[in-house]
Design goal:
heterodimer, A: 254 residues, alpha/beta, Glutaconate Coenzyme A-transferase, eight-stranded mixed β-sheet, 7 helices, 14 strands, B: 305 residues, 2 domains, nine-stranded mixed β-sheet, three-stranded antiparallel β-sheet, 22% strand, globular, CoA-transferase activity (chain B), 3-oxoadipate CoA-transferase (chain B), NagB/RpiA_transferase-like (chain B)
Chain lengths: 254, 305
């Protein structure tokens, strides 16, 4: 355990990094997922291969990319492919082990909404939409979801399914994988055999009531809920000194 | 035969009111200069198309050029919302627009079909999402080889006009592209009319020395325009970097319809062409975006005579 004070975001980054294995190929997003992948690469998973929706394959960025199409992801990459080939040859063909997703709403079956709040034709809030999120949740072998834990983000059912989770008939539809873990600033959730989310570990100092308060349905807990592992000094040092030295994603706001 | 012309002439020749216009580029090679020229020429009722609408569509929507947008992710990359797009969708400001929405793979599959005259393209996603309920162009069919299986299909997309960028081109319109090519090549092959903008026009021999790098052949190109820095604030790999500060600034500047109009008055209507825009940006800002060199090793094509 770290003697340093770590932020909620730093905990989410280190916890997400733990989910990645050395031989994984991961479809990365900017921000927290990008930091988690780069942290894993510098610790337990040096051979982790990072692919971005923009079509850069096995990127090793010299600087923190601010967009998934940033030029630092192109220079020195293993390959760069057009969008259609990235989505078909790499993702649809089953060559992506892990995808990261976030969203405005996530429900208890792991469906994610990043399209609209309210009615589609008369939206309260128009969000950016799917991008590749629908494909990632449909074709990656495992999906990791990272989001702050707030009641409005965790309704019992999402307003719009942008990225299907454990929808009925998921397998029959030919969809691969499914959400594996939901990492928030309060807990790490996993999914049971019925495709329902349950709390696997609670972060240090967080109570069951606090998680229930921030969730829009009656939360299930694992029989043996444990404490989420905390970041160690080396991980915090890497994040602060190497991965996000300007604190763009990890500084403030916690 | 040379197809070289200036940007104002290319846009006025290629685009008519009411056209569907695809602007290619995924973060990289976004045709900002062409978008600004469309605004200056006061087009209306355009059906704008691109996977990632980005700031260039925010600016065109705010200027009243658009009546419809086909897209798959409408945000300010790395920053947040597209505010003018949201004002149009949520409040009809400055005018109502209809939206035609896909996932990324759904949209690029439509371009793939359009570029190859395929009747439709199947894909293993979109089923299980809410998108098909709201878009009649996303349908399911029975797999003819495994009738128990339902597969999502999308129809071809054939824009009236595609505007694309590359690093360099011959006067005939053969274009070298490197870095992230995104949706650019299929967008060019799918359209009736193609405007190609590049950082540099080079001689034909330079292009033909490396034919594998010629992603767009002149046979599909109608207009060739030399527009240095024409991607700014997007970037051109090897020439200049993405102006991330401009994307952050846009989030502030586009907060209201009025402040957005002030920006358009200054940076689009207030300059005659891209050259004036670049001069107004200033040398210091452009020098800050310069990468250091990192040349690829030359290849040997061999000569077999």
């Amino acid at each position: 355990m770290s003697d340093l004070d770590y932020t909620d975001t730093e905990l989410m980054i280190t916890r997400a990094a733990l989910e990645l294995r050395n031989d994984d190929t991961v479809l990365v997003g900017v921000g927290v997922p990008n930091l988690a992948c780069n942290l894993a690469k510098r610790t337990h998973a040096p051979d982790l291969q990072m692919i971005y929706e923009s079509g850069t394959v096995d990127s090793n960025p010299d600087a923190l990319p601010l967009s998934i199409g940033d030029p630092v992801l192109a220079t020195g990459a293993r390959s760069i492919v057009p969008m259609y080939e990235g989505f078909s040859r790499y993702l649809q063909s089953g060559r992506i082990d892990v995808g990261f997703l976030g969203g405005a709403q996530i429900d208890k079956r792991g469906n994610i909404n990043s399209t609209v709040i309210g009615d589609y034709d008369d939206p309260k809030v128009r969000l950016p939409g799917s991008g590749g999120a629908c494909e990632i949740s449909s074709n990656a072998h495992r999906t990791l979801i990272i989001t702050p834990h707030q009641k409005r983000r965790f309704p019992e059912e999402v307003d719009f399914i942008t990225s299907p989770g454990y929808v009925e008939g998921r397998e029959e539809m030919g969809l691969r994988g499914g959400p594996e873990a939901v990492i928030t600033d309060k807990a790490v959730m996993k999914f049971d055999d019925n495709g329902e989310m349950y709390v696997d570990t609670l972060h240090v100092g967080v109570t069951r009531d606090e998680v229930q308060e921030a969730t829009g349905w009656e939360v299930q807990f694992a029989d043996d809920v444990t404490e989420t592992p905390t970041p160690d000094d080396e991980e915090i040092r890497l994040i602060r000194e190497k991965l996000d030295p300007d604190g763009i994603y990890t500084g403030g706001g916690d | 035969m040379t197809k070289v012309t200036d940007l104002a002439n290319a846009i006025s020749g290629a685009v008519d009111d009411g056209d569907s216009v695809y602007l290619g580029g995924f973060t990289h090679l976004i045709p900002f200069a062409a978008g600004h020229e469309i605004i200056r020429q006061e087009y209306e009722d355009l059906h704008l198309m691109r996977a990632t609408p980005d700031l260039v569509f925010d600016q065109m929507i705010a200027a009243g050029c658009a009546s419809a947008v086909t897209f798959s992710w409408a945000g300010n990359p790395g920053v947040g919302s597209l505010r003018a797009f949201r004002r149009a969708v949520e409040d009809g400001v400055p005018n109502e627009i209809t939206i035609d929405e896909y996932s990324h793979f759904g949209l690029v599959s439509r371009l793939f079909a359009g570029a190859r005259d395929m009747p439709f393209v199947p894909l293993r996603s979109l089923v299980g999402s809410s998108l098909p309920e709201h878009n009649d162009s996303i349908r399911t069919v029975k797999n003819p080889f495994a009738p128990d299986e339902q597969v999502c299909v999308v129809p071809p997309l054939n824009p009236d006009v595609s505007i694309v960028r590359g690093q360099r081109a011959s006067p005939e319109g053969d274009a070298h592209l490197w870095g992230i090519t995104g949706d650019v090549v299929d967008a060019a092959f799918a359209a009736d009319t193609v405007v190609l903008c590049v950082e540099e026009i080079v001689d034909t021999e330079t292009l033909r020395s490396d034919p594998n790098r010629t992603e767009i052949p002149g046979t599909v190109v109608d207009y060739v325009v030399e527009a240095p820095y024409g991607s700014h604030p997007s970037y051109t790999q090897g020439y200049y970097g993405r102006d991330n500060a401009a994307y952050l600034e846009w989030d502030e500047m586009s907060k209201t319809h009025e402040s957005t109009q002030e920006w358009l008055d200054e940076w689009v209507y207030g300059v005659e062409d891209r050259r004036e825009y670049v001069e107004k940006l200033g040398a210091e800002r452009l020098l800050d975006l310069e990468p250091t060199h990192d040349y690829a090793e030359p290849i040997d094509m061999g000569r077999y005579a």
